[in-house]
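[recover] target loaded
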C-alpha cells in the first residue's frame, strides 16, 4: 500500500511539473520538439520584417539571436516547454562590426560570443553589451582549403568548442566544416587546427545520403565529443565525430536551416536550439543523450 501511494505521489508531482511548464513529459525522445518560440516578426520577403533569420546563442540564462548580417543583438527569455511567444525582449545595438553579424556561439569561458561577420570572413568576439572586437579575418584562399568543395557562399555558421578552445566554421550549404584556433596566425588571419583542419560530410560511408539524400551543412553545434549538424530540407539532424565519422542521425521536424546552439540546463532533457532560417521561429530539439552537447562550448580544457 505504501509503495502504491508513493508511486501515485511521484506521478502526481511529475504531472504538476509538466502542467507548470517546468519539464517536458518523459515520453520525449531524441530529436523531439521540446519548445517553439514565435518571434515578434511579421511576414516579409525574407521570412520576417527583420530579414532572413540566422544567429542563435544561449548563455546559460537567456537566448540571443540576430538576423542575416544583423546590427542588433536580441535577447529573450527561455520559454517553458511547448509553443509560446517570445518574452522579455531586449535589443542591443552591435558596435564594431561594419558588415553586421551572421552567426554567434556562446563561449562560457570568456562570457562572450564568437561571431561571424556579415561578410562571412570576419571573426569577432562579441560581448552581451553588443561590442564586437575583430580577432582575425579568414583568408578565402589559404584558410578554406578546397574552397568548401563546391564554392563558399557569404553566409557562414560558427560554434565554439571548449574541449580545445577552438572554433568550427562552415559556410552555408558547404560540404566541409573548417576548424580554427581562437587566435590568429602570424599574418593575422585564421589558423587551421593542424591535427583536424576540416571535416567533410559528403564522403561515403560518412555522408548524409542516408537519411537526407544529399550532403550539406546548414547549422552546426558542438559542446562535447561530437558535432551536431542540421541540413536544410532534411527531417533529421546528424551527429559526426570531430574526425568526420558519421555517428548517428535523429528526427527533426520542422527542419532547421539556421544557426544552432546547445543547452543542457533549461529543461529536464538536454536540447539543441535551432533558428528557422526563413520564418520567425526558434525551436529546441532534444539531444540524443543527456549532456551530449553542453552549453557554452562545453568544459574548457586546462591549458
Amino acid at each position: 500500500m505504501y509503495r502504491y501511494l508513493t508511486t501515485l505521489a511521484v506521478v502526481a508531482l511529475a504531472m504538476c511539473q509538466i502542467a507548470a511548464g517546468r519539464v517536458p513529459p518523459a515520453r520525449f525522445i531524441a530529436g523531439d520538439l521540446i519548445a517553439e518560440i514565435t518571434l515578434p516578426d511579421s511576414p516579409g520577403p525574407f521570412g520576417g520584417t527583420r530579414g532572413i533569420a540566422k544567429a542563435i546563442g544561449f548563455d546559460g540564462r537567456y537566448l540571443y539571436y540576430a538576423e542575416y548580417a544583423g546590427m542588433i543583438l536580441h535577447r529573450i527569455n527561455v520559454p517553458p516547454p511547448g509553443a509560446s511567444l517570445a518574452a522579455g525582449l531586449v535589443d542591443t545595438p552591435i558596435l564594431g562590426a561594419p558588415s553586421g553579424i551572421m552567426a554567434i556561439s556562446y563561449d562560457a569561458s570568456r562570457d562572450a560570443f564568437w561571431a561571424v561577420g556579415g561578410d562571412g570572413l570576419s571573426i569577432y568576439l562579441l560581448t552581451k553589451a553588443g561590442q564586437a572586437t575583430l580577432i582575425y579575418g579568414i583568408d578565402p584562399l589559404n584558410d578554406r582549403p578546397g574552397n568548401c568543395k563546391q564554392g563558399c557562399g557569404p553566409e557562414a555558421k560558427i560554434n565554439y568548442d571548449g574541449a580545445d578552445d577552438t572554433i568550427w566554421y562552415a559556410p552555408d550549404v558547404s560540404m566541409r566544416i573548417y576548424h580554427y584556433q581562437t587566435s590568429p596566425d602570424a599574418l593575422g588571419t585564421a589558423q587551421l587546427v593542424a591535427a583536424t583542419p576540416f571535416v567533410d560530410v559528403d564522403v561515403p560511408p560518412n555522408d548524409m545520403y542516408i537519411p537526407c539524400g544529399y550532403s550539406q551543412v546548414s547549422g552546426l553545434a558542438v559542446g562535447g565529443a561530437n558535432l551536431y549538424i542540421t541540413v536544410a530540407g532534411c527531417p533529421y539532424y546528424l551527429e559526426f565525430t570531430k574526425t568526420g565519422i558519421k555517428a548517428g542521425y535523429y528526427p527533426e521536424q520542422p527542419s532547421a536551416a539556421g544557426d544552432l546552439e546547445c543547452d543542457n540546463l533549461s529543461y529536464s532533457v538536454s536540447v539543441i536550439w535551432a533558428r528557422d532560417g526563413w520564418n520567425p521561429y526558434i525551436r529546441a530539439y532534444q539531444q540524443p543523450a543527456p549532456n551530449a552537447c553542453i552549453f557554452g562550448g562545453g568544459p574548457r580544457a586546462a591549458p
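[recover] notes: Residues 31-297 form a domain with the Neuraminidase fold (CATH 2.120.10).
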